[in-house]
Amino acid sequence: MTATKNWSRDEVILALGVYAITPATKINQKNKTIQELAELLGRTPGAVSFKLSNLLELDKHRRGGPKGFSNFSKTDREVMCRYSVEGDPGNLKLDLLHDTLAELCNERSSPFYIPAKLRALRESLVIEAPPIGKEVLIITKARLNQSYFRSSVLANCEDRCVITECSIPSLLEAAHILPWAVSSEARMEISNGISLIPLFHKAYDQNLLGITADGEVKISKKLLQSGDELFRSFMVEVEGKKLRLENYRTPINRDYLSQKYRDFLSQS
């Protein structure tokens, strides 16, 4: 019988990187991203899928879930803790994880250099700085890790808008609960993001739509009274809808929702 090869710390970090952008329902050996990671690491898709399942169970276990599952390793625990908000396991610090992944994927001397493989992960990382123009230099502030934030938030919300249940990823955006400019510490916390269609994303940012700490949707009078009859009836249907935010792999931060909702009330 062939001995099982132990997972290195770097391999577990790469697995966690893929775990963050993979909805829990899509953790299986048929997942193309999991297959690509398996090829990169020289492992079977089944083994990689099992590792991601271990991370999922570790996530649940550390949040007070069932204690019977014990296949996660000491390295799994250490990596999960290293890249989670202190005291809130599984609430990944996506900026720290993003930077580590970028280093692993961009180090040409590393066995983890990814020239073409692991497309889903590579496309969500900003690995190389954009070239400087020959004639004009434009200096601007850029949110370099927003693509990874979006991928992770959508995965956490099972690739669905939390309000409409729209499940077409190209029509979804990752909305910050506490705005980027307001809270630097929470900017890249996975619990500070929700998946929304663009209309509701903009409405949420502009406090035309609010979400209470209990997940109830509130619509401003301005939005309720805009548009034609069809649009207004749609807004009436959305008003008061109760979201099941506790169902997500990483629970949405209720304190952040409460802070944001106070802004909504002050402007309604």
Oligomer class: single chain
Mean pLDDT: 86
Low-pLDDT ranges: 128-134, 136-142
Helix/strand-derived category reads: mainly alpha
Number of helices: 11
Strand order of the largest sheet: 1-2
Strand content: 5-15%
Shape: elongated
* Major sheet details: 2 strands, antiparallel
How many E-type strands? 6
Helical fraction equals 40-55%
Order of helices and strands: HHHHEEHHHEEHEEHHH
Question: Could you tell me how far the N terminus lies from the C terminus, measured between alpha carbons in angstroms?
Answer: 67 Å
Radius of gyration: 20 Å
Provide a brief overview of the structure.
The protein has 268 residues and is mainly alpha-helical.
Detailed description of the structure:
With about 270 residues, the protein is mainly alpha-helical. About 45% of the residues lie in helices and about 10% in strands. A two-stranded antiparallel sheet has the order 1-2. The chain has a two-stranded antiparallel ribbon with strand order 3-4. Helix 1 (about 10-20) packs antiparallel against helix 2, helix 1 crosses helix 3 and helix 2 (about 30-40) packs across helix 3. The N and C termini lie far apart (about 65 Å).
Q: Topology, please?
A:
Layout lengths: L8 H12 L11 H10 L3 H18 L11 H9 L1 E2 L2 E5 L1 H13 L12 H5 L22 H11 L16 E4 L16 E4 L1 H8 L3 E3 L5 E3 L1 H4 L4 H10 L15 H14 L1
Antiparallel strand pairs: 1-2, 3-4, 5-6
Helix pairs in contact: 1-2, 1-3, 1-4, 1-5, 2-3
Write out key terms for the chains shown.
single chain, mainly alpha, elongated, two-stranded antiparallel sheet, 11 helices, 268 residues
